[in-house]
């Protein structure tokens, strides 16, 4: 496959293939692969410790795979540093990463600036704050004063400033009240409508299935199933078996 330097409109927004990755001598990913088409929302689900976050690290350039490839919009980024992946439109929302001593507004401006786009203008920061009245009210307070939910909002607000082509989110519902999660989901939908393809790793299957178009299930470092969210939502027994790591019980391959 050819790799155009600035990507191609027809290529998937994100494509990983044949990923093998290890921490020292311990191999965690075995031939893992997934694709997120332009404009699509996809979830990566699976039991604890099967390698979902590790695959996100490989996508973000934080862990060099032993084998396999990562492409963004058709560009092979496997050997590229994180910085270049960000330039190509990748934005990862992992945990509640913020600069704690900077104010809420400064965090947003800083993110726009470091993402190398012109989106760090005052207007973009104001537009992001306008989506979150709670952040707007705390715009001049240090990020260290924010609650867990407010920090998740700030992490997603950064994505608005960056207007990413590919938004990768790791566990945004973790520890948050349902009403906050509902608001964040709405925001992710809006980002998707504005053109961001989304890859979501999520422990809450309900959150994932109500948000995404398609789901990959991972077990022991491998993708074991891929289906539409609607088909999985209609088969709760199968979802339960997959999330418990019941490869055979879940009827994989049937
Ligand atoms: N930095 C690290 N060094 C060594 N082993 C690690 C490291 N990070 C993760 N692991 C191990 O790699 C395996 C996969 O971890 P990973 O965090 O990718 O799983 P996960 O599917 O995201 O889990 P969870 O749903 O619990 O977040 C686990 O056995 C974990 O203990």
Brief summary of the model shown:
With 254 residues, this protein is of the alpha/beta class.
What does this structure look like?
- The chain has 254 residues and is an alpha/beta fold.
- The protein has a domain of 136 residues: P-loop containing nucleotide triphosphate hydrolases (Rossmann fold).
- Helices cover 36% and strands 24% of the residues.
- The chain has a six-stranded mixed beta sheet with strand order 6-7-8-3-9-10, sandwiched between helices. It has a four-stranded antiparallel beta sheet with strand order 2-1-4-5, with helices on one face.
- The relative contact order is 0.17.
- Bound molecules: adenosine-5'-triphosphate (ATP).
- The site of adenosine-5'-triphosphate has 10 residues, from helix 1.
- Belongs to the ABC transporter superfamily.
- One of its GO terms (molecular function) is branched-chain amino acid transmembrane transporter activity.
